[in-house]
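A.,

Following up on our hallway conversation. Structure tokens first:
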């Protein structure tokens, strides 16, 4: 027994150390999670408060009295539906165009070898390093000369321009993961290159296409600077500039309505992201490590 006691003591001390290590890790994770979720909770809590309770001193951590008045005001505002409709149209069109162009470009870079292939790929990636203000100024002057300001095409072209370089790299990474032998077998069976792409390769690139679509959609959905600069009328405003100009005034800010509107427009994106997040993660990792 005397020979086993030190061994048992050592095992118990190690077990106790592992338990305390696990407790400390989970405690740290809980603190980080609470720190991350606090802004989201405060957004939700503010949306259920009255205008006067928001500025109560001391501040109310829980909304009391609990009210849906801010949601009723937002939903009854016709401008809210206009902002939502415009954002939906612009970003859906942006996603479709970006996916189509990125698919063709990424597939071409993956399958064809031509002079300057790598240099052109690096140049495409380097365009992401230009300041947004430089691109915005150039596009603003171009759209003004073409009389496209305050239109859907101006917003769609801008968002496609912004998201296409990274999307091409993502699609190239996915195309690199598709064996060329599959296409060659399809072409031996009588398919042309385009038919092999559409019938054989595209079904295998669906996760990458979904990732590109989500990336471009969310980037445009949350954009403020581009949509604020390229639109001037209420009927063409998207959600971010529309909310700023509607609920943020010179002398007061309607925080409860702003937060309620933010919750409402976040529900569709959170639902879509939750359903398709595995495709987005797979697309980001695949496009980042291959090629």
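Then the amino acids I'd put at each of the 291 positions:
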């Amino acid at each position: 027994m005397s020979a086993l006691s030190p061994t048992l003591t050592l095992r118990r001390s190690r077990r106790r150390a592992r338990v305390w290590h696990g407790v400390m890790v989970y405690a740290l994770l809980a603190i980080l999670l609470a720190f991350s979720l606090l802004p989201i909770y405060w957004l939700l809590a503010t949306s259920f408060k009255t205008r006067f309770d928001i500025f109560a001193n001391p501040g109310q951590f829980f909304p009391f009295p609990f009210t849906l008045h801010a949601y009723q005001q937002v939903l009854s505002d016709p401008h809210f539906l206009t902002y939502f409709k415009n954002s939906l149209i612009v970003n859906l069109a942006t996603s479709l165009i970006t996916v189509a162009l990125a698919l063709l470009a990424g597939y071409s870079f993956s399958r064809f070898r031509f002079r300057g292939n790598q240099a052109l790929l690096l140049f495409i990636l380097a365009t992401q390093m230009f300041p947004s203000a430089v691109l915005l100024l150039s596009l603003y002057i171009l759209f003004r000369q073409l009389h496209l300001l305050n239109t859907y095409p101006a917003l769609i072209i801008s968002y496609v321009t912004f998201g296409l370089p990274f999307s091409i790299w993502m699609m190239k990474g996915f195309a690199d993961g598709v064996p060329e032998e599959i296409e060659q077998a399809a072409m031996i069976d009588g398919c042309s290159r385009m038919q092999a792409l559409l019938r054989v390769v595209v079904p295998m690139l669906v996760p990458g296409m979904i990732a590109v679509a989500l990336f471009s959609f969310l980037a445009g959905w949350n954009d403020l600077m581009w949509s604020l600069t390229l639109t001037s009328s209420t009927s063409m405003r998207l959600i971010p500039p529309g909310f700023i100009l509607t609920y943020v005034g010179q002398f007061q800010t309607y925080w409860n309505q702003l937060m309620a509107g933010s919750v409402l427009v976040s529900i569709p994106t959170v639902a879509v992201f939750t359903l398709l997040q595995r495709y987005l993660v797979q697309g980001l990792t695949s496009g980042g490590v291959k090629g």
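The chain has two domains: 5-47, 69-289. Curious whether your intuition agrees with the design.

B.
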